[in-house]
Amino acid sequence: MGGEATELPMIDFSGVVPSVPGSGPWAAVRAQVMDALTTFGCFGAHYPPLTPELRASLFDGAVKPLFSLPVETKRRNYYGPDKPLHGYLGGLPGLDAYESLAIIDGPKPEPVRAFADLIWPGGANAGFCEVVHGAAKRFAELEETVRRMILEGLGVAKYHEAHNESTWHLLRMSEYKVPNADEKWIGYLSHQDTNSLSVVCQHEVDGLEMQTRDGEWILVKPPPTSLIVMVGNALRAWTNGRLHAPFHRVMVRGDVTRYSAILFSVPEFMIQAPDELVDEDHPPRFKPYRHNDFVGFCVSEEGAHHDDKLKAFCAV
Q1: At what angle do helices 126-153 and 109-119 cross, to 10 degrees?
Q2: Number of Cβ within a 10 Å radius of residue 195
Q3: Could you give the domains of the chain?
């Protein structure tokens, strides 16, 4: 990837039907996906099933009211000490204006209802459940479509169904309160995602920046109706380094609060490159590992000392 690129590719998924892989523009879009993810590790996606109306309802009718609640209420979003990044995040060192809540299996209606009942006991949350589940379901459709295209593009499509059966999704909704300032400030520190794929939905305010392979930071600025798809370290490792997992951060400025909703696909299977992706030209780059073990390393004192945590954890 050269340093001349100043923006990410945009890929139009109009006409791509997730339930009918291979039909319509599938092959042409797959080629664009593979080029973007091997080069940038990230692309913008125009995905018509996520309508402007649903997108507006998600943020104005669900996400914003959620963050207006007292901190004590938001802290109910807790999944236990063995899942350190699965629930409420707030008051992090150096990130005082960042807050985030998450729903395990957000694309499924039952976990969304359980989350809403926890936050709003009494059941007056049907509207929240309908909107959040509807948006998360569409994020998940796009995520699975892209993941299937990746495996097809690498010639290992036979693993797709097994991966699907052992993959779950975390829906994370975030708020970045911003002071009135001309200077950019860090909304979230530079990092690589630990999971397979991330689907990012921004609301009105940009701020996501991605680092190119040559170290340049570029603002991810897709059209406001688009989504952003990004490779994480699990897919980087499983593809034996064929896909790029970019470092990214959130940098914000001005006096408008930024909101986002992100769907993370999380593998429960052993992350190990299949034999088809290992040869003389592509020797094994990472030792097999479990995602939860890697997350534990990332949040440990030792992991904090490394930028490329995957290399530090299991590089060959």
Answers
A1: 140
A2: 26
A3: 10-276 (2.60.120.330)
Q: Which two tokens stand for residue 210?
A: 């991605």
| Largest Cα–Cα separation, the chain | 61
Q: What does the pLDDT profile of the chain (316 residues) look like in tens digits? A: 333 345 789 999 999 999 999 999 999 999 999 999 999 999 999 999 999 999 999 999 999 999 999 999 999 998 888 777 789 998 787 777 889 999 999 999 999 999 999 999 877 688 999 999 999 999 999 999 999 999 999 999 999 999 999 999 999 999 988 766 666 666 678 899 999 999 999 988 888 999 988 888 988 888 888 999 999 999 999 999 999 999 999 888 777 889 999 999 999 999 999 999 999 999 999 999 999 999 999 989 999 999 999 999 999 9
Total residues belonging to the chain: 316
CA 93-96-97 angle, 5° bins: 145
Contact in structure between 180 and 255 (CB atoms under 8 Å) = yes
Do residues 264 and 193 make contact, with C-beta atoms less than 8 angstroms apart? yes
DSSP helix/strand/coil, 224:
coil
Residue pair 151/163 in contact by the 8 Å Cβ criterion: yes
Residue type for 85, please?
A: L
